[in-house]
Amino acid sequence: MTLPIGVLISGSGSNLQALIDRMEAGVLDVTIQTVISNIPGVKGLERAANHGIPSLTLSHGDYPDRESYDRVLVRALRDAGAQAVVLAGFMRLVGPELLAAFPGRVLNIHPALLPSFPGLHAQDQAAEYGVRLAGCTVHFVDEEADHGPIIIQATVPALPGEGAEELGGRILALEHRIFPQALQWLAEGRLDVQNRHVVVRPGERPLATRNGLPPCLVFPPLEEGF
Ligand code: GRF
């Protein structure tokens, strides 16, 4: 069964685009009921329009506090028929109200190997720190920033002397693969969480063997089509 979702964005929406592309390729079984941005005029809104996906802007500055903003988000997501929520570069913390409205059904992508480098500018933090491996994480959202149970992570080597921009670009390319995969697992009802450990139940799709990527480790493994 197709999972109706809402996607929250704040910017370029390249992760939103990755979801749309996988949907249109027939490997991601969701429908994007609405795209909501907290920032007006961002490229992600244009991407939604290009694919006939309804979108709206709800500026957080128009609301007195996080609770009232979250209430408006919940209403908009419910009105659109969303049953799960995907934070695709949404640069706001979501609060208990939204999490309670979609329990176990809010996913976030973060451009670092959590629990390293939570928060803003994770790619810069990793490049500055001098890590050897960087990467990205898709996780369930809980009340702490970049903290909930981890669904999938992917790594890239951080090359000596490489700047945050170059590293971030390679991380982003992997974000675009693991985010649709994690969402497909959610859509198929294959994710179980036990004591913050996420179990991905086996599916029917064969594991991906394609490897045109820079050396990387993806675990659990990607399945064909992602
Ligand atoms: C991504 O790096 C994502 O991990 C982070 O914000 C960025 C959003 O990029 N949360 P985009 O808007 O999807 O292009």
Detailed description of the structure:
With 226 residues, the protein is of the alpha/beta class. The chain contains six helices and ten strands, in the order βαβαβαβαβαββαβββ. β4 (84-87), α4 (96-101) and β5 form a beta-alpha-beta unit. The model has no long low-confidence stretch (mean pLDDT 94). Bound molecules: 5-O-phosphono-beta-D-ribofuranosylamine. The site of 5-O-phosphono-beta-D-ribofuranosylamine (GRF) has 14 residues, from α1, β5 and α6.
Can you give me a brief rundown of this structure?
The chain is α/β, with parallel strands linked by helices. Helices cover 31% and strands 23% of the residues.
Q: Uncertain runs with pLDDT below 50, 5 residues or more? A: none
Q: Any idea what the radius of gyration is? A: 17 Å
* Overall pLDDT metric: 94
* Estimated helix fraction: 25-40%
Distance between the termini: 19 Å
Strand content: 15-25%
Q: Biggest sheet: strands side by side, in what order? A: 3-2-1-4-5-6-7-10
List of distinct ligands in this structure: 5-O-phosphono-beta-D-ribofuranosylamine
**SSE succession:** EHEHEHEHEHEEHEEE
